[in-house]
Amino acid sequence: ALDGAGRLISTCVTPFGVTLIARDPDTLEIYARKKITNWLPIGQKFGGGVYFHLDHKGRVLLASNEPAIELWSLAGKATKLEWQKEKSIPIGPALDRLQGTDHRVIDVMPDWQGNYWFITRDGLVGVSDRQGKRIEVIELASEGIDNALAIGENGVFVVSSHAMYRFSITAEGKPGIDWREAYDRGSAPKPGTMGHGSGTTPTLVGNDFAAFTDNADGRINVVVLRQTPADGESLFFCKIPVFKANLGTSENSLTAIGDSLIVENNFGYQGPFENINAEPGLARVDIDKANNQCELAWENMAISSPSDVHKASLANGLVYVYTRDDSNPPDMHAWYITAVDAHTGELVYKVLTGVGKG
Predict the structure, then answer these.
(1) CA-CA distance, 99 to 95, in Å (whole number)?
(2) pLDDT tens digit sequence for 81-130
């Protein structure tokens, strides 16, 4: 993320923890770094600090493995900067009231009223006021959460291992379920996913829709739900299959461009040092409001993006993905930044970024 001063803010994730880093966006020179979360190797089930957000004051908002909600800011001048913790709200006691496990807090985000919402891998959903004086948590029984939060004016959206939810705060100050929509989670996890269920964080399309992918056997689907159905309207809007049967899954968020959604195929990817390839597939799904349906605008089955949160530029109409190239020897480990035409799905260009494992 870029803060208000134009500095590049990022987290560096290793099997042993997370480091918060501020850099010059042009030279990549490190201005400040701080180890914020320590953990023992936990395989695919990472915990706090991996996801972060910048708040309205440019501070880093994240959930540490204390576990706590933390705000970090940069102190100092020019290139002589250091990270300082401005606020820490312990949430362990509130989580312990429902579960006595080793809590892995995935994400924390503010809602439109300034409350902090957080979720854990074991299916706990909580909310704290901004001072941390009142913290309430509920449990999604027998359900886990492997992806981040999405929050809009209409509420808080979470995809569990079984269903998509919209939450809001009840009159008692607790997380309340506004609606729940189960999806097809398939018979088993697929190669390339971290859990048994959807691999995508909900993607909000304005204030109208919330989209994600399911884990159906055969072909997976892009699923679109209405955020706030009107009287007589169904919560479910549409779903449409993408990629080849038994060779498709998505472990990264969809990208919304207007009423279009970009989805990538991550089937087969096992991590940066194991099987680093994935089945090809990049697609665009259009939401057709007039006819209450979704359409597959294009599907590029030549591009392989093993694990990449793709980005779209509205200015030039390009979708950027991080790709492998089957024409290279498998042991070369060559990676490319690749640009795809968002209108047609055709390759525009690609640039070699590096060769080597990891």
Answers:
(1) 6
(2) 999 999 999 999 999 999 887 888 999 999 999 999 999 999 999 999 99
Token output for 82: 């250091």
Cross-strand bridge partners of residue 339: 320, 349
Are 92 and 105 in contact by the 8 Å Cβ rule? The answer is no
CB of 140 closer than 8 Å to CB of 125: yes
Angle at 217 between CA 212 and CA 222, to 5 degrees: 20
Q: Tell me how far apart the alpha carbons of residues 4 and 323 are, in angstroms, rounded to a whole number.
A: 31
Give the number of C-alpha atoms closer than 13 A to the C-alpha of residue 173, restricted to the C-beta side.
9
First to last CA, the chain: 22
For residue 296, the SS3 value is strand
Q: What is the DSSP letter of 51?
A: S
- Phi/psi at 175 (nearest 5 deg)? -65, 125
Q: How far apart are CA 137 and CA 96, in angstroms?
A: 10
Ordered alpha helix ranges (H), 106-189: none
Distance of CA 148 to the CA centre of its chain: 5
Neighbours of 180 (CB within 10 A): 15
Both tokens of residue 116?
């902090």
The number of angstroms, rounded, from the C-alpha of 213 to the middle of its chain's C-alpha atoms is 12
Distance from C-alpha of 330 to C-alpha of 230, rounded to nearest angstrom: 52
- Counting every residue, how long is the chain? 358
Q: What is the pLDDT of residues 278-298, one digit of tens each?
A: 999 999 999 999 999 999 999
Please tell me the number of Cα atoms within 13 Å of 338 on its side-chain side: 24
